[in-house]
Amino acid sequence: MAVLLLLAVLLDRLFPLRLPAPDTGSTVVLARDGTPLRAFADSDGVWRYPTTASKVSPLYLSALLTYEDRWFYRLPGVNPYALARGAFLSLRGGRIVSGGSTLTMQVARIIMPMPHTVAGKVVQVFRALQLEAHLSKAQILDLYLNHAPFGGPIQGVEAASWAYLGKPAERLSHAEAALLAVLPQSPSLLRPDRHPDAARRARDKVLRRMHDEGLWSAATVHDAEMEPVVARSLRAPLAAALLAERLHQQQPKSRRIVTTIDANLQRAVEDRVSNYLARLPPRTSAAVLVVENTSLAARVYVGTAEFGSVQRLGHVDMVRAPRSPGSTLKPFLYGLALDDGLITSQSLLIDAPQDFGGYKPGNFDETFSGPVSAAEALQRSLNVPAVDVLDHVGPKRFVARLANGGIDLQLPQGAQPNLSIILGGASTRLEDLVGAYTAFANGGIAGTPRYVPEQPRQARRLLSPGAAWIIRDILATNPADVDGAPIEGTINRHGAVAWKTGTSYGYRDAWAIGVADGWTVGVWIGRPDGTPSPGQYGAVTSLPLMFDIVDMLPDKHAYAAQPASVRKMDICWPLGGAVSSTPPALCRQRRSAWTLDGALPPTFAERDLTAWSAGLANLRVDAAGHRLSATCHGKGEHTVQIARWPALATPWLSTDDAAHAALPPLAPGCATDSLDVASPIRIAGLSDGARLRQAPNSTKPLHVTLQALGTTGEVQWLLDGRLQGSSLGNANMHLALPQAGDHRVTALTRNGAFAHLSVRVDKP
Q: Cα–Cα distances in Å, from 372 out to 261, 596, 650, 659?
């Protein structure tokens, strides 16, 4: 006995076991419920999803051990009786009929292939004994569960269950358990996707064995035999493909990577994106990220519209690709201005041509609206008011606050933060934007999206709870028409969803981001190579898809409680003070505003002032109401107050508002004062109310040549509120009147002087 033991030890040392390394082989990336998202084959092209006996259906284990080796737990890896019976049958038949292999012997052949010969059988027995000496029964069983062949590139019961049945091995029926138990006996001949009849006969043999052994009842076996053998076409899973690739690159040695992705939502959104992109221009791709606000866990990650597509550059992950954010940063700017006490939700801003130190922004639709509230400016994504607010906040400070909240803007090389940032003059990533937008549901605290359960929750303060709540309310009550222009006065049916769109310069990027209590959804659509897609912008391209995805999500109609720091107060235009403390004569318009910490900031002062200051004017007048300059006095002298509108707002004021804001004329004999610096101008070249007609048979627009008289400075020219260009002094300005109908021409100087006229163009 001692000699045999010594010989066994010597052979074990000379011919050591070669077990599969735990950190090599294929990798599977899983959804949070264990559904495979993507499998990465090993160097041999094998798909294997790591598992253990505790994660496999007891029905399968029972069928496997009963059919293959019912003495597995009682014998040391070799069954002498079965070997002897196999040898006798083989000698009588002249060929190997039954090998008498135990489950341990099968594992030995799987991990160390050997020929089906007598010598091979001897080696197999030796290796089986080695396995039993070095490993526990549980470890040997796990080796079988992970490495047994199931046809094609599939190894292991978990990979086979997903590949053929589309379900985890822990949820197998009796029939499915019997099928997978017998399949490794002859995986090529019994593949259910190619040979369903042969697979069924083999399965039923296992079912009858289970009945004969008294393990499954006759009724159970009868029902299982009635179940058809239906297998999916053998293919690797390919959902959230770019996220899986990203995580695989980050964890190259991990064989099993569990993500936070919801498998059902992921498949539904991928299908919706694929169908939606079919109507968009060629080479268009899309990215979608859905994050659960409380946990910051990503439940949907679509990095491309079509993975692997050469035309759509389907290998580029647009969730983390730097792109121009368009107007999607504006909510954070207005929130920061609220926190700084610069504005309320209804503060008066001016949407008119302005010069910010040589930077002259325009709006997306090239029109201007004059006086607007901060809420309307944000909802309509007006550019000039946003640049005005950023000029007061400070570009460097704004960029620093965004970086603290997780949005690390990438500026052009050598550039410093400037006013163009708020209009998309920098780059950021969809995942950064989505993480920051969660602040509007989380009391102003932004976070980093989490892709694996073990990833720590990273959160940081971006806005105060009150500012975040006010901005969310503004974005949730946006009256925009999602199928048309950015705003058309219709009611948003997604009232509990706060949303913002953005479009980068040249129609290169179309964005839509929505926030509900439970979810934040980000959508990007464009071309990964950065080429333009004319006519494709956020409100008409990305927003409908974003709302479609929101409709798929549960629990989206709750709303966060109003913080104690937020109050509703009535304020007055143009001054900005409370109605309760403003004389009625100075309160030209009343607005119901959300205020933060009771702050009621005044309307912004004029920029580059050359004429007069917006705000409250205290004037001395005589008994006739004439203005008295500094050294001038008159009979019945007294003081009056006038609420002045910002100069650039005057072309849009009603006749009544303009009259109440007008300065009284100077009293006769009084010297001029600085309030008269804004000299009046007039338009030459056309008379107010003129009627024009295009030449017969002409298809070209009618052109007119105009001049602004009474100024030596720059003049902005607007046609129907749309900026057409500028002129200097009385230089000629050529305007095209492209269509028949009524038109309004406005000339506006930097100090607020303006003139306008109406003209009608008749059809030829």
A: 42, 20, 13, 20
pLDDT for position 491: 39
Q: Could you tell me the two tokens for 364?
A: 């997306």
Q: What is the reported pLDDT for 153? A: 87
CA diameter of the chain: 139
Q: Rounded CA gap, 717 and 353, in Å?
A: 9
Residue at 477: amino acid letter: T
Contact present, 514 and 497 (Cβ < 8 Å): yes
CA dist 754 → 19, 659, 674, 718, 738 (Å): 87, 15, 18, 11, 23
Q: pLDDT band for 244, please (50, 70, 90 cuts).
A: very high
CA gap 260, 263 in Å, rounded = 9
For 436-500, what is the HEC assignment?
HHHHHCCCCEEECCECCCCCCCCEEECCCHHHHHHHHHHHHCCCCCCCCCCCCCCCCCCCCCEEE
Q: Which of 285, 327, 381, 464 is catalytic?
A: 327
What SS3 string covers 339-393?
Answer: HCCCCCCCCEEEECCCCECCECCCCCCCECCEEEEHHHHHHCCCHHHHHHHHHHH
- Residue showing tokens 């994050």: 291
Nearest to 404 by CA among 363, 476, 461: 461
Token pair in block for residue 600:
């009621």
Instruction: Kindly tell me if the per-residue pLDDT of 1 is higher than 60.
Output: no
Contact between 284 and 277 (Cβ < 8 Å)? yes
Q: Is the bond preceding residue 574 a cis peptide, omega within 30 degrees?
A: yes
Sign of CA pseudo-dihedral 465, 467, 468, 473: positive
Rounded Cα distance, 119 and 104, in Å: 18
- CA 328, CA 706: separation in Å to the nearest integer? 39
Is residue 265 a contact partner of residue 290, using CB atoms and an 8 Å limit?
yes
Q: Are 704 and 685 in contact (CB under 8 A)?
A: yes
Long-range contacts of 3-9 (CB under 8 A, 24+ apart): 8/129
Q: How many residues does the chain have?
A: 764
Task: Give the tokens for residue 135.
Answer: 């490993």
Distance CA 548, CA 273 (A): 10
Nearest to 485 by CA among 615, 664, 363: 363
Count of beta carbons in the 10 Å neighbourhood of residue 456 = 8
In whole angstroms, what is the distance from residue 331 CA to residue 349 CA? 15
> For residue range 385-442, what is the model confidence (pLDDT) as tens digits?
999 999 999 999 999 999 999 999 999 888 899 999 999 999 999 999 999 999 999 9
* Mean residue pLDDT across the chain: 87
Active site residue 285: no
Spatial CB neighbours of 376, under 8 Å, sequence gap ≥ 6: 382
Here the tokens at position 407 are: 């949005």
- What is d(CA 749, CA 681) in angstroms, rounded to the nearest whole number? 9
Catalytic pick among 26, 57, 62, 68 = 68
Q: Is 327 considered catalytic here?
A: yes
The Cβ of residue 543 has, within 10 Å, a number of other Cβ atoms equal to 27
Interatomic CA distance for residues 415 and 145, integer angstroms: 58
Contacts of 314 (CB under 8 A, 6+ apart): 285, 304, 305, 306, 307, 308
* pLDDT at residue 740 in the model: 84
Nearest to 532 by CA among 281, 275, 362, 277: 281
Find residue 511's DSSP bridge partners. Answer: 502, 524
